[in-house]
Design a protein that fits this description.
By secondary structure, the protein is mainly alpha-helical. The protein has 7 helices and no strands. The protein is globular and about 60 Å long.
Amino acid sequence: MDTTALLPLLVSSIATFFAMCNPFANTPIFMSMTAGDDAATKKAVARRATLFAFAIAVAMAAAGKLIGELFGITLPAFKLGAGILVFVIGYHMVMGKPHAQSADEKEVQQNKEQKLEQAISPLGTPILAGGGTISAAVALSATDGFEGLVAVIVGFGVIMIMSYFFFLSGDAIEKKIGKSGLVALTKIMGLILLTIGVQIFLGGMDGVLNEYIPTISSLLSSS
């Protein structure tokens, strides 16, 4: 491994992933998704989301090209699906009912299981490990080989650790803004998520059009 080439790759990796997975911006989203949950649930959701996002980014960096060829998945297709998912989650956050203030033990357990599922999707992916993050991870490992893969593992790992501790600081923020502020924040972040979903979807559409329109045009011109 070329250590002299690794340092600039690490710096580039951390800067790139920080811009894409901005812990400052994602913390209010985490707070909205875990509104009213106990500290243990919030900690479990934060841990599962960051670990899953890390696993996805590393796996795609190590075998992204092979996985895409094996299942026939393209980045535009991933973005289209992710965009729809984020849009739906954002819509439910804007239009959904407020979090229940009291619940029996069975309901609490069901709610915790739902939140742990949300830690995988949409929080783990595509919010933390979205199309841009995955494409950057694949590009780093494909361009710079083993050093690029190490840069992805270390760089994205640093950002996920930061995100985890930012998420856990949400309790202090929640105490300051109160219940009404949290409801308003939930709707605002839902609207932002809805818009992000549209943006991701449009990015996927742009990729589809750039990929298939030239092919269609060449077919029409040759016929």
